[in-house]
Each structure stands twice: as structure tokens, then as C-alpha cells.
């Protein structure tokens, strides 16, 4: 039987109400590494704001699932394999459409490539992020159809996938998992976000709703979500003909992402000298990948983030489009920002300036598209098809047979 990772393609994430968040972390999380302690089962949560209306989401590391997805999976199957808790509105009212979930068993995952590994000095657990292909052992399944997995999502059987595919889901990503009898050579076990192994006998520690309801902002989008997006299995855009007003999907194209190795020390010195300030997030990413090419068809990317060594040349190209403009008519980011990427072959650049990312079009149009570098790349994680549509005719696909420039409408994985 085949198994699949079921997750959220939105990854906006929900924030916990601040006072409740302090109480929750004081009792249930390691104070050093912020990993959820292993003697917990179901957890009731109080959100800072009303939850996003996504079938599957997360709140500060705790999975949240919508009632209709539970119904599609099947109540009996879900309850037998998950421990559920309640979700409360900011005002303290219980939300009937959403539940929190903890897996009775958290599945083992393996990968052949990692970012970095850190061991917590307090609880002893490891924190890692896998960059390679995911593998799972056949013996871990033991005939079960539903598990919680490492990345705030679910591992489901093909039988469950067939059931939920009878419905249309917004912001759901599906990735087929490789199943092996033994870990492939060179693979290492990925520690679970909680703890691997059965949770069926875990002590029940349920935190009840707090009385003080204070508003708080949603968490900053995760750079790790984007790194996971880069290595997705069979990333595919489903497209429509721009001449078809019904926007019926008529062509699908599986694309590829190409990532460079991490930046050298000299590269990082250059990055800091060019950006000057607020570069911590982008530096973190470039230490992992010094440039990427996204959604490539026949090797040609739809979007590109340049390697650091190319920034100066690309910045000169970007500013050349504004030669002859009165300097007072230009924004500061157009005058002083650094071109870090572009919609390929469009002369429309992504400009980094004082921690923010802007989209600068060669005909003078401009827009802020990220209050931070992480927020910028999270747009691709959340809805790649929507982002490419925003870029217009410069990010369309060809079927190789006709002259149709197919517009992406939907994105899937696996």
C-alpha cells in the first residue's frame, strides 16, 4: 500500500493568545529548545485571532484540523489514531469546526541530506531539517492507515487519500512517500518534532482555556517551509488557456527546482557589504543555497534568485531601466536597493532594501512583496500558481506543440 504526506500548502500558521502561550510553554515545552514534552496527549488551545479557514494548519507547533476533513477521513479512523483537543476563539468560545490533534504514533522519517543538527542540552533531543528525499520504513506502518508526521501534518494511506479526493480542498499539499524495508545507505533518522514511537500510553496533560484574551500577531512564516517546498516530489502546475474564459485546466506540467550549494565565507562578506543592514534572514538562507532556479521547464526557470556574486551586475541592470528618470520620481529601493532575483528574462527584479523585498518592473511599476525575506519566499510556499499569475505573461508555460502560453491555475505535489 502507498502512503502520502498530507500537509498545508498555506503555512500561514496561527498564533496562540499571549498569556495562554506563556502557560502552555511553561508546562508542556522544553524551556531550552521549545520542543513539546513527551508526556502530553490532547491539548486545548486559545488562539490570538480567529483561525484560518484551512483544512489543515498549525498553531505554534500544534496541529489543527477542520471538522470536514476529519469527516472525510472518517471519525472512527481518526479517533483511533489521533488524540484530539479543542480550539477556542480569542473571546473564549469553543470553535466547533476545528480540533487540535496529536498522533498516537509519530512516524519515523529518514532523509539522505540535512541542513544542520543541534542537540538540546536540557532535554537531549535533536533539531534538524531534512533537505533530501524522504524515506519511511515499511515495518513502521503495521497496517495502520493514519499517523502524525514530523512536519505538522499527517501521513495517510492510499485508501484515505482516495476518500478525501472525493472533495475539493483549499491549501492542501499531497506528497507520495518512498517506502523501504531498510533505510537507504547514508540516510539518518529524523527526530520527530515531538518524539518518535507510540504515544498511546502518554499521560494526558490538557491545558484549559485561559481567561485573559489578548491579541497577537500571527507567527512569521517559516524559512523551513520554503526549504521543504524546494525539494517537493513532482511539483506540478495545472494550467488553462488564456483564451478560455472558463479557465478550465487543459495542460499540466511537472517542473524542477535547482538549488546551488551554500555561500562561502567570502560570499557572506560580500552579502553584508552590499545589503548593509537587516540581512540576517536572507543570510541564513544563502548559507544553505547561494541562489536557486524555481519551476524550471526544460531547464528554464520561471523565477530565479541570483547567486551573491551576481548581485552587483544584476543591480546595475535593474537600475539601467531608470536612467533618464528624475531622481525624485524614484523610490529609495529603486535607487539604493540590491537586485537579488527576477522573474526570468523579464527585466522585472526582486529588490532587497532595508530588510524588505520589492518587485520592480522595468516599465516603472513597483510593489512591496515581502515585509521580510522569509515573508517574500513564503509567498511561493503558500500558493505558487497564484504568485506566478501575478507576474503575468512572463511566467507562463509551453506545451511544446502549440503557441498557447498556458497560465498556471493550480499547484500540486506528489
What does this protein structure show overall?
- With 414 residues, the protein is α+β, with helices and mostly antiparallel strands.
- It is 22% helix and 31% strand.
- The chain contains eleven helices and 27 strands.
- The chain has helices at 18-28, 67-73, 75-81, 158-164, 223-230, 265-275, 280-288, 311-320, 332-336, 373-382, 384-390; strands at residues 3-8, 45-46, 56-59, 62-66, 82-88, 94-103, 105-106, 109-111, 114-119, 126-130, 134-137, 146-149, 153-157, 172-176, 178-180, 188-190, 197-198, 236-240, 249-254, 256-259, 292-296, 303-305, 338-343, 348-353, 356-360, 366-370, 407-412.
- It has a seven-stranded antiparallel beta sheet. The chain has a five-stranded mixed beta sheet with strand order 2-5-6-4-3. Strands 12-13-1-14 form a four-stranded antiparallel beta sheet.
- Helix 5 (223-230) packs across helix 10.
- The two termini are 16 Å apart.
- The model is unreliable at 191-220 (pLDDT under 50).
